Amino acid sequence: MKEMFIGILASMFFAVTFILNRSMELAGGSWMWSSSLRFLFMLPFLFLIVLARSNLKQVIDEIVRQPLHWLWWSFVGFVLFYAPLTFAAAYGPGWLVAGTWQLTIVAGVLLGPFFFKTIHSKNGPIQVRQTVPMKALIISLLILFGVLLIQWQQANVLTVHMIIVGVLPVVLAAFAYPLGNRKMMELCGGRLDTFQRVFGMTLASLPFWIIISTFGFIKVGAPSSDQLLQSFIVAICSGVIATTLFFIATDRVREHQGKLAAVEATQSTQVLFVIIGEVLLLSTPLPNGLALGGLFIITFGMLIHSFYTRKIKLNPKIERLRKEQNL
């Protein structure tokens, strides 16, 4: 499935986040600057892209029409996603943050019942609640098991404090990111393209990033030149390129919970890219035999997801309603 390839490509750029965030923390940079600078740097690039495509007015009109919804779901999808990730990076290694983050592949599947599918019939629109695609959930759990095997070789260095400050914030982020993304797709209803939606969410979350950066300035002063540079790289690679690619992939399959789960599962490949990056840049140890088994399981799980999504049909309840309404 083409969308899964796009998701894997996005994961490669997302991996930059975990590597450089850890690098910045090891160099003494504040997580508050690491989180806020990414979105502050993203905004002008996204603004120029949307402006060049002559799509700016439509974004502003959408935000003005439902400002509170845009503020809230942008806060959930961006702030509650990225601020906890950078906070966790201050207290835990990249492998721990990246590994825990893979909970999002299961979180995305479990969020299905919180959303409704609109069926347009002769008697008007009908709202049908989405269901949890069990096959997709089982495959995602298999991939998550592979991720856990990769993490096992470092599990002996974990402490209670590291779990509280390095794991729990990432669990929050793992649910917030797919929830915010899906709610914004629902809110936009296909009226905005991916660039417009990412720009709109970045713009709507701007007040929160200004507040966080203000606290950062009060607490630790201005960011260093190295942190500015690395945050800029994260903003381009992860914020603009990876986020846009991932949103494109999820937007293309937003009507199919199983396919959406498969695209979200591609984020598991971030662990592979993070391991490679940390070995090359931060001199972390190579994975052992058990971890290599985990890598195989992840790859196998992704192949199963790809095979499964080729056979996915619409929700049976939706198909039945369509037949009953002669759609």
TrEMBL record:
Instruction: Give the source species.
Output: Halalkalibacter alkalisediminis
UniProt keyword Repeat, yes or no: no
Provide the transmembrane region boundaries.
37-56, 68-89, 95-116, 136-152, 158-177, 198-222, 228-248, 260-283, 289-308
State the protein's name: Multidrug resistance efflux transporter family protein
The reply to whether Transmembrane helix figures as a keyword in the UniProt entry is yes
Keywords assigned by UniProt, alphabetized: Membrane, Transmembrane, Transmembrane helix
From what superkingdom does this record's organism come? Bacteria
| A Pfam family of this chain | EmrE
